[in-house]
Design goal:
By secondary structure, this protein is of the alpha+beta class. It has a single domain, classed as 2-Layer Sandwich (Double Stranded RNA Binding Domain). Helices cover 39% and strands 39% of the residues. The protein contains 2 helices and 4 strands. The protein has a 4-stranded mixed beta sheet. Strand 1, helix 1 and strand 2 form a beta-alpha-beta unit. Helix 1 runs parallel beside helix 2.
Length: 96
């Protein structure tokens, strides 16, 4: 999977990248062909925002996480995408 990272108003660290890639490994079970992922980290006043956009199987999944720390924001965004992917996966199973 091709993953790009964008940092806005925050310093780029390997810890954030590694944590994000580790959490995104959960998506491999449900997504057949992950094409690309774009992760945007930003800080707005005291709120840390992580926005993850995943393009797979011709579908775009978007998850946004907000909290006072970046790591829970990443977890929340990945969790939202995981729910979307599971829901889409279940819909495809029901159609068959």
């Amino acid at each position: 999977m091709e993953t790009t990272f964008t940092f806005r108003n925050i310093e780029a660290t390997d810890g954030l990248k590694d944590h994000t890639l580790e959490k995104m490994e959960k998506l491999d079970r449900f997504v057949r062909k992950p094409i690309s992922a774009h992760v945007i980290f930003s800080v707005e006043h005291i709120t840390h925002v992580a926005e993850v956009t995943l393009t797979a199987d011709g579908t775009r999944y978007v998850g946004v996480g907000k909290s006072h720390d970046m790591y829970p924001s990443i977890d929340e965004a990945i969790h939202k995408i995981l729910n979307q992917v599971k829901r889409s996966h279940d819909r495809q199973k029901q159609r068959r």
